[in-house]
UniProtKB/TrEMBL annotation:
It comes from Rubneribacter badeniensis. The chain crosses the membrane at residues 34-56, 62-79. This is Band 7 domain-containing protein. Coiled coil: none annotated. It comes from the Bacteria.
Length: 307
């Protein structure tokens, strides 16, 4: 399975550039049983031939026994549960062998490739991909894929892991080139689905199924980060000022409505004055200092007092 690694290079005196390199990642699963079976078959063939020819006391006994052991070991082989083996006979495709025990005709058939049919993961990146508004961005993503047809993976493409990753990188650049910088972060899921659809159609002819693509990180140039940060701060300040103005407008309208109520009914104004006096006395622990205008609110009109 191919994997992209990054090496940091200097770009001028301040910026850095990341370059992707392809490597084959080692498989964590053990194939020790396959090699042990090969040695066991070799030992059986060598021992059987040696003891059968030792009576002739020929100097070629060891050589013949070695050849016999090698032929038996390469003829009877095993494949792990997750592997499929492409068998060629005289250079032409013959069959798919495995998992388990399989046999090859000596000197006529051979295993062309061992294909891992499990779900594979690989990371890839699109370096300095240009957006629709010509902003270079670096995008890191993870690709989940598997081989469903070992025959196509062997015969249709030279190196299917590398071909899948190169196709993923190209598709990523194409998708990023259709979006503006502001749309990339908001449409991550849509980008994942678009990449999965594009790669699925392209890799199907190689016997490979792309299960999902997930973007891990989107990096923009450092010189643009400050500008975007200032733009975001200005936008937030603008929104805050708009909200504050709307609140001030609502409060002023409520004050106008309250003034109309107080103007229509003087008693409402006196009740409000009493409430303010109560609140002031409560906050000042019983001591009330009020202007004379507020004290006038406690004086009832003569008509009310007589009534």
């Amino acid at each position: 399975m191919g994997l992209f690694k990054r090496d940091d290079l200097k770009r001028g005196s301040e910026s850095e550039r990341k370059v992707a390199e392809t490597e084959i990642e080692t498989n964590d699963a053990s194939r020790g049983g396959v090699y042990l079976f090969f040695l066991a078959m070799f030992a059986v063939g060598f021992s059987a031939t040696f003891f059968a020819t030792v009576a002739f006391a020929s100097p070629l006994t060891v050589a013949v026994s070695t050849v016999a052991g090698f032929v038996l070991a390469t003829s009877v082989r095993i494949a792990p549960q997750w592997e499929r083996v492409v068998i060629l006979r005289f250079g032409r495709f013959n069959r798919i062998a495995g998992p388990g025990l399989y046999c090859c005709i000596p000197f006529a058939e051979y295993a062309a490739i061992h294909v891992d049919c499990r779900i594979a993961t690989a990371s890839f990146s699109a370096e300095a991909a240009l957006t629709a508004d010509l902003v270079p961005v670096d995008v890191d993503a993870i690709l989940f894929w598997m081989v469903w047809d070992a025959k196509k993976a062997c015969l249709e493409v030279e190196n299917y892991p590398k071909a899948v990753l190169r196709s993923a990188q190209t598709a990523m650049r194409d998708v990023i080139g259709q979006l503006n910088l502001a749309d990339i972060s908001m449409r991550r899921k849509q980008i994942d689905r678009d990449l999965e659809e594009i790669l699925g159609k392209k890799c199907e002819q190689w016997g490979v199924t792309v299960m999902s693509v997930e973007i891990r990180d989107i990096m923009i140039p450092r010189e643009l980060q400050d500008a975007l940060s200032k733009e975001a701060q200005a936008e937030r300040e603008r929104n805050a000022r708009i909200v504050l103005a709307e609140v001030e407008k609502d409060i002023s309208e409520m004050f106008v409505e309250a003034a109309e109520v107080y103007d229509r009914n003087p008693r409402a104004m006196r009740l409000r004055a009493m409430n303010l006096a109560y609140e002031g006395a409560k906050d000042s622990k019983g001591v009330l200092l009020a202007p004379s205008a507020l004290a006038d609110g406690f004086n009832l009109p003569r008509s009310d007092a007589e009534g």
